[in-house]
Amino acid sequence: MSQLHTPFRFDYVGSFLRPEALKEARARFAAGEIDRAALTAVEDEAITQLIAKIKALGYHVITDGEFRRSAWHLDFMWGFEGVGHEPTKTGLPFHGEAAMIDDTFLVGPVGPAEHHPFVDHFKFVQGFEDERTVAKQTIPAPAQTLAQFAMPFNWEATSRFYDTREALAADIVGAYVAFGKELYAAGCRNLQFDDCTWGMLADESAPFVFGADEAGLKDIQRAHKDINNAVIDALPDDLVVNTHVCRGNYHSTYASVGAYTPVAEVLFGEEHVGAFYLEFDDERSGGFEPLAAVPDDKQVVLGLITTKRPELEDKESVIERIHEASAYVPLDRLNLSPQCGFASCEIGNKLTADEQWAKLELVKDIAHEVWGAE
Predict the structure, then answer these.
(1) DSSP 8-state class, residue 290
(2) What pLDDT does residue 164 have?
């Protein structure tokens, strides 16, 4: 088992563009033309090739690219007891395009899986660890799962099984802790919570989306922080837990807009993660000033390279922005990555595989120049 720990000076969020052979196999599986074993064989080969490419580029962290998922968050939730889903008719409202991901809702109380499939996903990747690379497992944050079932659009289904959001949160914590302990027993020491809830709470539409006034939104922030912390605090101390804060990433579109300012105090100041992977690729994320709330014992991974557009960023401009951020968090606690994954869902973002790899090459080159990272 590798002893390396995330984050690294040059890093990435986790998902990659799906190769065509994988897309074709998943479509054939959905149509009933191939069985699960045949699909798994194609997934295994695609992930093997992906990891070889990541290693050849010199990165120290490996993932499966989320190649076994249809969406970054929902497949994980489907692994729990009490969670159902069906093809969506309307999708989720993103800016410019509806995100056509499965409607996901409760069909019973939330409970831990007897054996969560993501543990096997991790174990496959772990088999490629070496002295220079470590596997990390990405999952939606507990707060993301709470939001999925506690939001007004899903509460009617949820209220058949829960009278209060607190009772729902308690069961989600139980399911996550059981998963985390199973994952730890399998050898995982690097876990990443992907979390869109903070972007939603920072957006000016938050009062409407959450049905709350300013004081109510602050209570919701604390509830989201508390559920994440409850899981983190129940897991082994040597399991590194970091988080990626996202504003939505579907086919190069986005869901939320707004600086981190409204959530900085609670998110940065009180969440028990080791590092924050943060989006800063365009004006939607605001300035670096909220980083002043990041405590001295936490790291920040600056997402300054966008995965939403194919154009390659100007190297010197990115370096300048890193130094601007260092006015709020010292350079030795900063790292660099793309702002999000390249394919949070199977459809992927609007760039080519070559453009994807050029982005990662740029991240590495900048990290070498700024920090001397190898």
Answers:
(1) G
(2) 96
Instruction: Note the pLDDT of residue 98.
Output: 52
Output the CA–CA distances (angstroms, integers) from residue 5 to 132, 275, 339, in the order listed.
Answer: 11, 11, 20
From the list 194, 360, 220, the residue with the least C-alpha distance to 276 is 194
Q: Quick: pLDDT tens for 47-96.
A: 999 999 999 999 999 999 999 999 999 999 999 999 999 886 776 555 56
The tokens for 304 are: 């300054």
259 close to 202: Cβ distance less than 8 angstroms? yes
pLDDT at 327 over 90: yes
Judged by DSSP in three states, 144 sits in: helix
Residue 258 corresponds to which amino acid?
G
CB atoms near residue 358 (< 10 Å): 15
- The pLDDT, as a whole number, for residue 91 is 62
Q: Which domains does the chain have, with CATH numbers?
A: 20-371 (3.20.20.210)
Q: Answer for the pair 289, 138: CB distance below 8 angstroms, yes or no.
A: no
Check: CB of residue 204 under 8 Å from CB of residue 257.
Answer: yes
3-state secondary structure 214-273: HHHHHHHHHHHHHHHHHHHHHCCCCCEEEEEECCCCECCECCCCCCCHHHHHHHHHHCCC
Cα→Cα distances 167→31, 113, 164, 348, Å: 38, 18, 5, 35
Q: Give the pLDDT confidence score for residue 205 in this predicted structure.
A: 87
Cα(250)–Cα(104) distance, integer angstroms: 17
Mark 217-243 as b/e (b = at least 16 C-beta within 10 Å).
bbebbebbbbbbbbbbeebeeebbbbb
